[in-house]
Every structure is written in C-alpha cells, then in structure tokens.
Specification:
With 468 residues, this protein is an alpha/beta fold. The chain is built from 15 helices and 15 strands.
C-alpha cells in the first residue's frame, strides 16, 4: 500500500528513547528521547544541583544537574537540552541528555526512562520520525545512513551533498516538469475543443526528450555512485607464483597474504580494503589460474573466475622472469579475460633483456613493476586512480545516484516516459498519455518519499543503527 507523508506523519505518538553514542568507554554518552511526552518525562527525572525540579525548560539551553530514578535516587550528573516540536532532529518534541561515558550510567538512565513510559527506539526510528514529520524527505533520510557509514573523503562528500538536499532538488525539479506536462495533456481531456495541435505535440515531445535526457544522466551516474558507496573492486589474478600475493601485500602496506616460492600457495581468495586518494578500494587476492591441480586448488580457481566477472578491474599479473611468459599470456588473453583488464608485468628486476612492448589487451600495454624492489609501484597506483576517475561524475553536482532503489525508480520513470512519447507520436488518447506521465511522476515521488510503501520504509530504516 502506498501512502503520502501527510496521512502518516502523526500515526506513531509513542515517545522513544535510545543511546545515540557508540558502545564502550568514552568521555560522555548521549541519550535521545523523542515524542510528545519527552518534556514531561524530563521534568520528572531532572533536578538542579540544588535538588529542585525545573518547571519549564528553555529550548536549546543546556542545563547541568542530576538525573534521578523512579525512587528519587541520583543516577548521574548530566547535561540536558530540550527541543520543542518542529525544531528538533526528529521534528517532534525532543530531549538530548549527556551523562558520563561507559555503559552502566547510560543504561541505567535509559532503563528509568523506559519505566516512565518511553519505548525503546527501533533501528533508524529517529530518522524515520524526522521523515514522517516532514522535516526531511526520504532520499535525505537515506543519506543519513550513507553519512554515518562513509569511510573515505569521497563517500563523505557525496553523502553530505545528498543530506543537504542537492540530489532531492534535482529529482524534484524533474518531477515538477512532468507535473506541468501532465497539466497540459489533461487540459485536452477536460476541454476536448482544446485538442493538442501538432505544434504543441512537438513541444511536448521536445520537453519529454529533455526530461528523459536528465533522467538518463542520473542513471548513468550510478556506476560512479555505486563505487563511491560500495568501493572499487579490484581482482588480482594471474598464473600461480606470478606475484599476486606480493602485490596484494604491497597495496595494503602489510604482510596480509602468505608469500612463498611454491606455486599454488593461495587456495582461496583474500579480500581487504584500502583508501586511494579518498576512494575506497576493495582488493582481492585470488588463486592462481592454471590447468591441473587438486580439488581444493580447482575450487579456488573457480572462485577466482567468479570474482573476475564481478570486479570493476582485473589486475592480470605476468611473471616476466619466465621465458615462456609471452606464449602463456597470449593463451590467457584468449580464454581468461572478461572485461576491464590492466596487464601488470612483475619481476622486472629478474627479467633481463626481455622485450615487453608488443603485448596488449585492448588499448592497454604492460605496466612494469617489481614487487620485491618496489619498482613501478607509484605508476601502478596512479593508473589505478585514473581507472577509478574514469567512472566518476562531478561529486558536487548533486546528480549522483548511490542507491539501487533509486536507480530502479529512475528506470521505471524512463520506461513510462518512453511509453508516453510513443503515444504522443501516434496521436493516441490523451488519457493514455497522461496515465504514463503520472506513472513516471509517481516513480520519482517514491525516491523522495512523496509517495511511499510501508514495507519499503521498513527495509530502508532497518539498515540504520539503533540511536539514529
């Protein structure tokens, strides 16, 4: 069932509470209480340093005092801030309370608030409350989770732009253009004598083409947005003993993978993360690919081929110290590669006078390195950065899609727009054209939450941490 925010903004009148700082020891712990009874509950449990109750809390003024339990026993010294309805994170009446860090004091305060009628907040419920109260739209609510989970400068930058509403404004602008078109088409339904003339049809088609182009641009940005959100996935592949694990360790700046002269040491894959100029990179050391080997080694090779297909880039490592490396590579070029590949010739320090310039995969030559001597490593990192940058749109444009859900809705809007254009060209009934345009507008409305499904809300906010 689809709902509008206006119909559901007041459906949950509970007052909810949760610790909003990470677990463990620290200087302070923060607790959030939100809902219509927040101020009343605070008055019951806060006392000034002289032991007096506070009749009225001045909004946004921090007060120092003591938190007492239901038996009038002091739990801890606290700082409290009261926020009235319409002027808080959730949009509801809200209290934020700060006690000494560590788990016991905060838990004791929360237990007291639960006994006083509050309910434990569910994952993401504070942000869900902010959405339902109309303080933020759904795409901005989703950006909260992105901001919390951001591990690099680039992912933080995009999440921040989403939270500030840049992306929402782009989507809403496109939706508004569709609404204006719908009004023009529906005028010919309400007033048949005002049938759309051929010149007007051309104008409508031109406008739809512009809208389609704008949505196409958003859909195309998802490749970069996915990488920013999920990381750039690099598979290190090649024949056994080519130096894959050595390169893996070099990229991570630690001895993560076992390195031995014995071919086939890596039987399963190793996966780790590192940051490259603000981008998160997931690098995977795979089992060596060759014919033969035991059952375990073959299983590792099968896993390696699967990872290759799922990766954004394959680093194919070549052992240049082998005399037959060129013949082996030509065989591999025919059978192993599936997409974006960078050829990396390793052991250049042992290769003697071997020539390397004539072997290419696509337009790529061989990048020469020595993992032992660390020769060519800076050039390799720069090439990896270049490959990542090729996929990146303007991070400050507000036009970067990072959500698979949003891409699905954008593609649904595109499908409906294409159907509407086809009907306009065939001079079909305006009712049918308007129907398709409304489907497109509704798809965009589901991104920002003008229209939403309760099940979808559950899926979105269940991914949040408790306390947010």
């Amino acid at each position: 069932m689809k709902n509008s925010r206006a119909s559901s903004s007041a459906k949950d009148e509970d007052t909810i509470v949760a610790i909003i700082t990470p677990p463990g020891e620290g200087g302070i712990a923060a607790i959030r209480l939100s809902g219509p009874r927040s101020g009343f509950v605070l008055k019951n449990h806060f006392r000034t340093t002289s032991g007096k109750r506070v009749k009225d809390f001045q909004p946004f003024i921090m007060r120092f005092g003591h938190f007492i339990d239901i038996h009038n026993v002091e739990i801890d010294e606290v700082l409290v801030v009261y926020m009235p309805k319409g002027h808080s994170y959730t949009g509801q009446e809200q209290v934020e309370l700060f006690c000494h860090g560590g788990s016991q004091a905060a838990r004791s305060i929360v237990d007291t608030l639960l006994k006083s009628g509050a309910r434990a907040a569910e994952p993401g419920e504070f942000t869900k409350m902010a959405f339902l109260s109309g303080r933020i739209d759904l795409s901005r609510a989703e950006a909260v989770a992105e901001l919390i989970s951001a591990q690099t400068d680039k992912s933080y930058q995009v999440a921040k732009e989403h939270l500030l509403g840049s992306y929402s404004k782009v989507v809403e602008s496109i939706r508004q253009s569709l609404i204006e078109l719908i009004a023009e088409v529906e005028a010919s339904i309400d007033f048949p004598e005002e049938e759309i003339n051929p010149d007007e049809v051309e104008k409508l088609l031109d406008t739809l083409a512009k809208i389609e182009s704008d949505i196409d641009q958003l859909v195309a940005s998802y490749n970069g947005g996915r990488i920013i959100n999920e990381g750039y996935k690099i598979a290190i592949c090649g024949r056994p003993n080519a130096g894959k694990s050595s390169l893996f360790n070099l990229l991570l700046k630690q001895e993560r993978a076992l390195v031995t002269p014995t071919p086939g040491t890596t039987r399963d894959y190793l996966s780790e993360w590192f940051e490259l100029d603000g981008y998160a990179v997931n690098v995977i050391d795979t089992a060596g690919l060759r014919t033969g080997g035991g059952a375990i080694e073959k299983a590792g090779q099968s896993s390696a081929r699967k990872i290759m297909k799922e990766s954004d880039l394959i680093l194919w490592i070549i052992d240049l110290s082998q005399k037959s490396w060129k013949k082996l590579l030509e065989t591999d070029l025919k059978s192993e590669f599936h997409k974006n590949v960078l050829l990396v010739g390793n052991k250049i320090d042992k290769a003697g006078s071997t020539k390397f310039a004539n072997i290419k995969y696509g337009s790529s030559g061989i990048l020469l390195v020595s993992c032992i001597k660390k020769i060519g490593f800076n050039q390799l990192k720069q090439e990896l950065l270049n490959r990542i940058m090729e996929t990146m749109p303007d991070l400050t444009s507000g036009q970067i899609v990072t959500s698979a859900r949003h891409v699905q809705k954008l593609k649904g809007a595109l499908k409906s727009i294409k159907a509407a254009r086809a009907k306009l060209k065939k001079n079909a009934s305006p009712e049918l054209t308007a129907f398709d345009l409304r489907l497109a507008a509704d798809s965009l409305s589901e991104i920002t939450g003008r229209i939403y499904n309760d099940d979808i809300l559950g899926q979105i906010f269940s991914k949040f941490c408790i306390g947010k």
